[in-house]
Design goal:
Blueprint (H helix, E strand, L loop, with lengths): L5 E2 L2 E2 L1 E6 L10 H6 L7 E3 L3 H6 L3 E4 L5 E6 L5 H8 L2 E3 L13
Antiparallel strand pairs: 1-2, 3-6, 4-7, 5-6
Length: 102
């Protein structure tokens, strides 16, 4: 993001995320894990509230359900990593349903 964009005249430090905006359908957590993130065996699943409580803002970017988690500076990267929580197994990695055969 930093190499491509300026926000309000300042450098942008951010990471890309997908936010589950719906309980069902293409904006649900299941659909995002099955489609957008199916090639990732492991993912972080923080809530928007967790990120905000840690001091990070989210900005809707590109197309729904894509967001960017804004960092005040590159020095806050470690704080963001801590706010992401535990790395979890993506049960839909490789396009498989949970319990499906590879």
């Amino acid at each position: 993001m930093n190499r491509l964009f300026i926000l309000d005249g300042s450098d942008v430090w951010a990471i890309s995320v997908f936010v589950a905006l719906d309980d069902v359908g293409t904006g649900s957590a299941k659909a995002i894990l099955q489609t957008k993130l199916h090639s990732y065996a492991h993912v972080y699943l923080p809530t928007v509230g967790q990120l905000r409580r840690a001091g990070f803002e989210l900005l809707a970017t590109f197309s729904r359900p894509h967001f960017s988690v804004l960092m005040p500076s590159l020095e806050t990267a470690d704080e963001l990593v801590n706010a992401l929580g535990e790395l979890r197994l993506n049960p839909y990695a490789g396009g498989q349903e949970p319990g499906g055969r590879a």
